[in-house]
Write a structure and sequence with these properties.
CATH superfamily of the largest domain: Type I PLP-dependent aspartate aminotransferase-like (Major domain)
Strand content: 5-15%
Strand order of the largest sheet: 2-8-7-6-5-3-4
Distance between the termini: 67 Å
Number of domains: 2
Keywords: Aminotransferase, Pyridoxal phosphate, Transferase
Oligomer: single chain
Cofactor: pyridoxal 5'-phosphate
Radius of gyration: 21 Å
Shape: globular
Subunit structure: Homodimer.
Number of strands: 13
InterPro entries: Aminotransferase_I/II_large (IPR004839), AspAT/PAT-like (IPR050596), NHTrfase_class1_PyrdxlP-BS (IPR004838), PyrdxlP-dep_Trfase (IPR015424), PyrdxlP-dep_Trfase_major (IPR015421), PyrdxlP-dep_Trfase_small (IPR015422)
CATH architecture of the largest domain: 3-Layer(aba) Sandwich
CATH topology of the largest domain: Aspartate Aminotransferase, domain 2
Protein name: Aminotransferase
CATH class of the largest domain: Alpha Beta
Structural class: alpha/beta
Largest sheet: 7 strands, mixed
Length: 392
């Protein structure tokens, strides 16, 4: 019996995942000279020396072996201490799972909670991975708009209207990527109450919690709905540790148990010496001094970019109070889509910005600008944009 020859075999589920529009733009930019990128969502700072030194010591001390699947107990204790010290929230270490960044924590939550026939509510615009994770979990996706008139905060009334009998999860991300919006305490409480009333889980993705400006505060969702919240967090943004791939999830025991089970087969455990460095990141005051210095620099850049954008023709920025992004509205009279505008700006100013549609349909008419870039490059990028836009 002869079988039909195939060049390769590929699972159908791979085809439902969309390639990131962000990556496509970066690839185009990589083939051009003299380009300044305001697209990447990564701190331009180096990891604080005290954290790097801790990792080096850990290597010398023999932290080169497997760890428990959930993570090194002392590291999970340090995470619990952090939430007690910063937010006065009691977290049991058995409710904590160390993950390969918040990316993995989010993936594990979707896979552990959702299945075919379930619905998940995802804001629009929102970070790109949520929709793709939902597709892999075969869940139905309900997009709920984040509106400019509500300062891009999730509206509790619209949330209630979006809930169906099949809704099992709501995704929350504040401080927000891509808008830079922050959540008011009253709204956090309202969402917590809704989740508890309807017996729905909240996936709260909180990696930008320490980059806040103008007196804004962060309110972790686990403080208000501990039995309904799966919190995803990361060391990547806070401590400029993107390449270290260190994050964690906090969830109710019945959920974290199954997340750990899946994590054991996906990753096994996060790198041992990186976890030891994480302990220093959380407990050493020098780490937090470095975080505050980064926050102050980001705030200076935020003000600088806002000043430029407010003086530019055809653009109107939303004033962010968190993260390190500015969400910018394109003048409708230009008659350009978000993707058209991003391509035009790359071609005419050699500046990369991210089209709003990379984050959902509601992002049409907007672009995201990252100010996680050194001051001189930011100024040069702003001058280029101003000159190009003045010719329209």
């Amino acid at each position: 019996m002869r079988y039909k020859k195939r060049k390769y075999f590929l699972a159908g589920r791979i085809n439902i995942i969309q390639r990131s529009k962000i990556r496509e733009l970066f690839e185009k930019a990589s083939k051009m000279e003299n380009v300044i990128s305001l697209g990447i969502g990564e701190p331009d700072f180096d990891t604080p020396e005290v954290i790097k030194d801790a990792a080096k010591r850990a290597l010398d001390e023999g932290y080169t072996h497997y760890t428990p699947n959930a993570g090194i107990p002392e590291f999970r204790e340090a995470i619990a201490e952090y939430y007690k010290d910063f937010y006065k929230v009691d977290v049991d270490i058995d409710n904590i799972l160390v993950t390969a960044g918040a990316y993995e924590a989010t993936y594990l939550a979707f896979q552990s909670i959702l299945e075919q026939g379930d619905d998940v509510i995802i804001p629009d615009p929102a970070f790109v991975c949520y929709v793709e994770d939902a597709k892999i979990a075969e869940a139905g996706i309900i997009r709920i708009p984040l509106r400019e008139e509500h300062k891009f905060r999730l509206n509790p009334d619209e949330l209630v209207e979006a809930i169906t009998k099949r809704t099992r999860m709501i995704v929350i991300n504040y401080p927000n990527n891509p808008t830079g919006a922050v959540m008011k305490k009253s709204v956090v409480k309202a969402i917590a109450d809704i989740a508890q009333d309807y017996n729905i889980y909240i996936l709260s993705d909180e990696p930008y919690e320490h980059f806040l400006y103008e007196g804004a505060k962060h309110y972790p969702m686990i403080k208000y709905a501990p039995d309904n919240t799966i919190l995803a967090n990361s060391f990547s943004k806070t401590f400029a540790m993107t390449g270290w791939r260190l994050g964690f999830a906090i969830a109710p025991k019945q959920v974290i148990r199954d997340m750990i089970k899946l994590h054991a087969y996906v990753v096994g455990n996060v790198t041992s010496f990186v976890q030891i460095a994480g302990i220093t990141a959380l407990r050493d005051k020098r780490s937090w001094e470095a975080v505050e210095r980064m926050r102050q620099v980001y705030d200076e850049r935020r003000k600088l970019v806002l000043k430029y954008l407010n003086d530019m023709p055809h653009l109107q920025p939303f004033k962010p109070k968190g993260a390190f992004y500015i969400w910018v509205k394109i003048d409708p009279e230009l008659d350009m889509t978000s993707e058209d505008f991003a391509d035009w700006l790359l071609d005419n100013a050699r500046v990369v910005v991210i089209p709003g549609t990379a984050f959902g349909k509601q992002g049409e008419g907007w672009v995201r600008i990252s100010y996680a870039t050194e001051k001189d490059k930011l100024i040069e990028a702003m001058e280029r944009m101003k000159e190009a836009l003045s010719k329209l």
